């Protein structure tokens, strides 16, 4: 085979084997399936070296998934371009019912050559580690909720109800300790569940403490501090947002961030008919959920509490102005939509969309201390 100038390589990744296809440059370039290769670093380096010996320029791609970004970083370190593809945005033929590793690799190579693939943002290793820590905290909270639900379900079956209003505080825990069950087996189950709940709470506390320590050395520390000036956003939610979104300056406009979070209306219009539906719910679910939860606080009139004031004072003047403008604007927006008869959940979602715009604005004022990944 003669020396070719350019080729596009599609990789269908899996745990043990990667299916690889190559599309030669040009509209009529040859498409070949190269086979399945071991996922080890040595095998990958050998494959790339073999392809590089035959082509001046190589461009690789694979779908974002459970295999992570290690392959991407390896390819980039060898001097070749690679894009990690958003799986939900890969064009698919209607009616196609056959899916194999070979077909997926061929399809990726073909679409890469045609320029039809959308890349995801790839964080650096430090940012990815912070993201893992943030997600570990979310998993720990889910586990804690499950443990508490098991206790509540057991007592409900036995006809026992806590007379107070707020659960899982000191008074509620004292009440749980005073509960007397008739059967030894049930007493044992309750004590085991209470022990599991305490351990789950301690796990959450340990992770949150580690997050507070780790954020001090993070390149996005200043942005995290600035976001805490916003109502409804504390340290954990600010870290969650930045861990999932990364460098906010990669979004040229606020509307791009809103679309990335899936907070913009869906649309199915044709001709003279315009049909808009609910939000798209595309993009990052964790970041969107965090913003929606923060938006509930804007149902109250604008104010800055004693604890929040210290966080506001720690930010630049420009950030304080944005945070107060957000309070005034979003509180008014919430009341107006409620008066117009909108459901609370719909109203809060609309507020979350605008809140994303204010978060974007803060991200333009306070920049990361160093790059946090490639676009």
Description:
The radius of gyration is 26 Å and the shape is globular. It starts with a strand and ends with a strand. The protein has 3 domains: 4-120, Nucleotidyltransferase, domain 5; 125-217, no CATH class; 221-374, no CATH class. Helix content is 52%, strand content 13%. It contains 13 helices and 9 strands. With 375 residues, it is α/β, with parallel strands linked by helices. Helix 12 runs antiparallel to helix 13. The longest helix is centred in the middle third of the chain and has 33 residues, at 125-157.
- Head-to-tail CA distance between termini: 35 Å
Mean residue pLDDT: 93
Estimate what percentage of residues fall within beta strands.
5-15%
Q: What is the share of helical residues? A: 40-55%
Number of domains: 3
Which strand order does the major sheet show?
3-2-1-4-5
Give the beta-strand count. Answer: 9
Question: SSE order in H/E notation?
Answer: EEEHEHEHEHHHHHHEEHHHHE
Indicate the radius of gyration in whole angstroms. Answer: 26 Å
Structural class: alpha/beta
């Amino acid at each position: 085979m003669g020396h070719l100038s350019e080729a596009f390589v599609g990789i269908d990744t899996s745990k043990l084997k990667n299916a690889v296809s190559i599309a030669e440059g040009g509209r009529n370039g040859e498409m070949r399936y190269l086979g399945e290769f071991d996922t080890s670093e040595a095998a990958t380096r050998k494959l790339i070296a073999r392809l590089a010996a035959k082509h001046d320029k190589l461009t690789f791609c694979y779908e974002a998934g459970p295999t992570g970004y290690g392959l991407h970083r390896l390819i980039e370190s060898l001097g070749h371009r690679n894009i990690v593809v958003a799986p939900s945005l890969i064009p698919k033929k209607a009616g196609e019912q056959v899916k194999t590793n070979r077909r997926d690799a061929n399809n990726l190579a073909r679409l890469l050559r045609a320029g039809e693939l959308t890349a995801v943002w790839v964080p650096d290793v430090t940012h990815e580690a912070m993201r893992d820590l943030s997600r570990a905290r979310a998993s720990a909270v889910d586990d804690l909720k499950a443990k508490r639900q098991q206790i509540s379900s057991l007592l409900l079956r036995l006809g026992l109800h806590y007379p107070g209003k707020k659960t899982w505080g000191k008074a509620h825990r004292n009440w749980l300790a005073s509960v007397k069950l008739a059967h030894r087996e049930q007493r044992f189950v309750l004590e085991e569940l209470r022990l599991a709940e305490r351990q789950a709470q301690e796990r959450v506390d340990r992770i949150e403490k580690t997050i507070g320590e780790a954020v001090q050395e993070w390149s996005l520390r200043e942005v995290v501090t600035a976001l805490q000036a916003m109502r409804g956003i504390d340290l954990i939610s600010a870290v969650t947002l930045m861990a999932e979104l990364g460098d906010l300056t990669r979004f040229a406009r606020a509307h791009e961030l809103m679309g990335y979070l899936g907070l913009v209306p869906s649309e199915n219009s044709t001709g003279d008919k315009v049909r808009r539906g609910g939000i798209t719910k595309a993009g990052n679910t964790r970041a969107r959920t965090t913003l929606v939860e923060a938006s509930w606080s804007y149902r109250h009139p604008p104010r800055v509490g004693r604890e929040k004031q210290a966080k506001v004072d720690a930010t630049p003047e420009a950030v304080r102005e944005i945070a107060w403008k957000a309070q005034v604007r979003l509180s008014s927006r919430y009341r107006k939509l409620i008066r117009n008869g909108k459901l609370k959940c719909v109203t809060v979602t609309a507020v979350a969309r605008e809140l994303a715009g204010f978060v974007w604005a803060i991200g333009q004022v306070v920049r990361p201390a160093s790059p946090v990944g490639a676009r």
